[in-house]
Design goal:
The chain is an alpha+beta fold and about 425 residues long. It has 2 domains: about 325 residues, Beta-lactamase (3-Layer(aba) Sandwich), CATH 3.40.710; about 80 residues, Beta Barrel (Lipocalin), CATH 2.40.128. Helices cover about 25% and strands about 25% of the residues. An 8-stranded antiparallel beta barrel has the order 11-12-13-14-15-16-17-18. Strands 2-1-10-9-8-7 form a 6-stranded antiparallel sheet, sandwiched between helices. Helix 8 packs across helix 9.
């Protein structure tokens, strides 16, 4: 924690399909003595997405929503503008929660407490005081995977308008209370009477001004929660997936939720592995916070780790690898870094772009380490090489494969099924 400048960490672990233990380390805010406990609230960031998708599936179960109906049929206060792409295929809720809608705006920076907050329609149209561009469709829906917090925000509006309630109330009623997530809330801003429960976010070793950012983009990034609550949710989803008695989702919807729709994304969760090593979960990074959830439904194992620093990604990976080694997680093991001459790193610097898709990543150096910035799940992450031209990002474990000429010139990088060529 000291090495990575992470003031506080909270961990919860599942064994044999139950919450086995949870604990906290460090403090809620630097230069304080207020310790992190198992009930300390952290921002879940993008882990909000699969939790929000659970409410959508509950509404599918009771017939209020349909996964494959055009989402504009459910929207009243705002409509997703039609264009040549939506004329080929209307955007549906299935597209939106699996990042296959072709929508723009991959993530959100949030707002400092006390500043004006936009409505959801203002966010979607990029109108003041929104601090992000309009959410629009610029790929044919269903044609490609591209991470989009903007798409999750459209789903948020549809859920709230069909339910006729505030989104946070819908999530309370359909997910948080029934699933036993007793400490969690989608209320943004966080209620003042809960400030003492919450960790402050940190950037550069210092607490954020106002302690954290506010996220009206609730479905994309708005959940305050604990690792224990996240593991509790995962246990319930796994129970439904396996057809358990008393499950809170029908087995067919839970199985659809955990079936790849676009890329390696289900209806909300990220997916990986096969057989006993199959897992679901999500990673998240908001201003000042990083978190990750992993759960293996076939073995009833998993964990959630939440940190109150933007530098928490590598620490989270190390913690999860240690837990996986201790409990024998299937196909989840430490990796051996490929040690290379630092002077060779310059060959990998640059910006890489996909052909015919508005997708780019940039590789740059900070000190003696390479970092990648890009759309979607890449975010801003350290690169760890496993071989001369194969690497993973620390935190989410996204694979990067660099293609080179015989002379060692890097010409392209492949990631998440996309090949991106070096730009001059």
């Amino acid at each position: 924690m000291a090495e990575h400048k992470v003031p506080g960490v909270s961990v919860a672990v599942a064994v044999e399909g139950r919450l086995a233990w949870a604990t906290g380390f460090g403090v809620k805010q630097v230069e304080s003595t207020d310790s992190v406990s198992t009930t300390t609230l952290f921002q879940a960031a993008s882990i909000s997405k699969p939790i929000a998708a659970t409410a959508m599936l509950k509404m599918v179960e009771d017939g209020r929503l349909d996964l494959d109906t055009p989402v504009n049929d459910y929207l009243t206060s705002w409509k997703l503008p039609d264009n040549a792409y939506t004329a080929q295929q209307p955007v549906t809720l299935r597209h939106l929660v699996s990042h296959g809608a072709g929508t723009t705006v991959w993530g959100f920076p949030g707002y400092e407490p006390g500043t004006a907050l936009p409505t959801v329609p203002q966010i979607l149209d990029g109108l003041p005081p929104a601090n992000t561009p309009p959410v629009r469709v610029d790929l044919t829906p269903g044609s490609a995977w591209r991470y989009s917090g903007g798409g999750a925000t459209i789903a948020q509006l549809a859920i709230a308008e069909v339910a006729g309630e505030a989104f946070s109330d819908v999530l309370d009623d359909l997910v948080l209370r029934p699933f036993g997530m007793e400490h969690s809330t989608f209320a943004q801003p966080l209620q003042p009477d809960r400030f003492e429960e919450a960790a402050a976010g940190h950037r550069g070793g210092a607490a954020l001004p106002g302690r954290w950012h506010v996220y009206p983009e609730l479905a994309a990034a708005g959940l305050w929660t604990t690792p224990s609550d996240l593991v509790t949710w995962a246990i319930e989803i796994a129970s439904a997936y396996q057809g358990g008695s008393g499950a809170l989702l029908p087995e067919d919807l839970a199985r659809e939720m955990l079936t790849p729709q676009e890329g390696s994304t289900g209806l909300g969760p990220s997916l990986g592995g096969t057989g006993p090593g199959f897992f679901f979960g999500h990673a998240g990074a908001n201003a000042g916070f990083v978190a990750q959830l992993v759960y293996f439904p076939e073995t009833g194992q998993g964990a959630a780790v939440m940190t109150n620093a933007e530098t928490g990604g590598r620490l989270i990976r190390e913690i999860l690898l240690a837990i996986g080694a201790e409990y024998g997680w299937p196909d989840y093991a430490e990796v051996t870094p490929f040690v290379r001459d630092p002077s060779s790193l310059t060959a990998y610097f640059g910006t890489f772009a996909a052909q015919q898709l508005p997708v780019t990543v940039t590789v740059a150096r900070e000190g003696g380490t390479l970092f990648v910035d890009g759309v979607g799940a890449l975010g801003h992450q350290e690169i760890l090489f496993l071989s001369p031209n194969r690497a993973i990002t620390l935190g989410t474990g996204t694979e990067l494969v660099f293609r080179t000429t015989a002379a060692g010139e890097v010409t392209s990088v492949e990631s998440m099924g996309l090949i991106m060529a070096r730009q001059e």
